[in-house]
């Protein structure tokens, strides 16, 4: 037999063509096809038809940009933000909210069926948000040192700064901080300041400003802090965070308080939490309550269970679980987050918790090797999902229930398939829309032992 002929890619770089869009990707792009060959185009949705210019060609797919919209799909609207399409923060402002929820539900169903091999009816109706604007309680704003020290967001897929005056997703108090900070930035002389990070406590409406610098040398910090204090009445804390790395996470591991408190005080289901500059918390507080309520219901605790909360952060879910469990172990690799978690446990007088510093893929196998038994494991991993060692260790520990909180349908479906090969099955998948106007969707999955 002769060798199979290599398939010819049916599109060329910079070619313009008309496409009808029938699909939607995990990153918020519409999908059109040329002779069965997929072309991904941002800011399009199923039902659109448009003229597209090919910008990138790969072996199995191409990417393009929308040159002219010829026909609108159902749910398309005019975006409200003047820099939408340039700033990389939103992907779905051109879609009405009802249609956004439909598309996100379909994303979860597609991943569960195509990658996981599970039936689509496992996926429940998505829990939408009551507030679809100004919901974010944390904003991270990079700076460009180009003479005027512009502030904004990076263009999608680049480090090219798009200056902004106001973000429609950020809490009003964060936009206030952004406006005040922008009025000061032209006074900065050096380029040591990389990012400004602003946080607000929804409970107290107090705010925190974080100056992220390349190194500790930031003599202008004190003057900048004084300026913010004079202009922002609800400011409770100003922190300098040092992060010498040019790429990766915005915040580094070392901070010092320039003025005010070390952390913000917040609440979740009548529990009190301290949130430091480095702490990760969910950025949509109202939807977080719904997400955690779903996780607690899936855990099905009676007060007799030993529970493991993997990727526990500052211990929010851990402490909520502890009120309904016999004992809860929280695992997190960021030491500062564990410090916050321990402080939060003490603050709320919760003693049936133990927090462990370390990577989940290292700590959990050690716990499995010691034959620690647990009835319930809760995992809330990053977008890459769980490491294989984590899935293997969970199966070895043999919990009756696993509650998987996911921010990526594709890696969720992959991990569910792997767990299915180790004697577990998903009972349902509950999507929750934590991030309106973006392609992101969270899910809570109840997984039980066969």
Task: Describe the secondary structure blueprint for this structure.
Blueprint: E1 16-24, E2 29-34, E3 37-42, E4 49-57, E5 61-71, H1 97-114, E6 138-144, E7 150-154, E8 161-163, H2 172-185, E9 193-200, E10 207-213, H3 221-231, E11 235-242, E12 254-260, E13 263-268, E14 271-276, H4 285-299, E15 306-310, H5 316-322, E16 327-332, H6 335-347, E17 353-357, H7 360-369, E18 376-379, H8 388-397, E19 401-406, H9 409-420, E20 424-432, E21 442-449
Parallel strand pairs: 3-5, 10-11, 15-16, 15-18, 16-17, 18-19
Antiparallel strand pairs: 1-2, 1-4, 2-3, 4-5, 6-7, 6-9, 7-8, 9-10, 11-12, 13-14, 19-21, 20-21
Helix pairs in contact: 1-9, 2-3, 7-8
Structure description:
- This protein is an alpha/beta fold.
- 24% of the residues lie in helices and 31% in strands.
- It is built from nine helices and 21 strands.
- The strands form four sheets. A seven-stranded mixed β-sheet has the order 8-7-6-9-10-11-12, covered by helices on one side.
- α1 packs parallel to α9 and α7 runs parallel beside α8.
- The chain is globular.
Characteristic key phrases:
21 strands, 450 residues, seven-stranded mixed sheet, alpha/beta, 9 helices, 24% helix
Please identify the oligomeric state: single chain
Number of helical segments with 4 or more residues: 9
Radius of gyration, Cα only, in angstroms? Answer: 23 Å
Total strands: 21
Strand order of the largest sheet: 8-7-6-9-10-11-12
- What is the averaged pLDDT score? 94
What coarse outline follows from CA principal-axis ratios?
Answer: globular
The helicity comes to 10-25%
Which percent range describes the beta-strand content?
25-35%
Order of helices and strands: EEEEEHEEEHEEHEEEEHEHEHEHEHEHEE
CA(first)-CA(last) distance: 46 Å
- Pick out the low-confidence regions: none
The structure class reads alpha/beta
Largest sheet: 7 strands, mixed
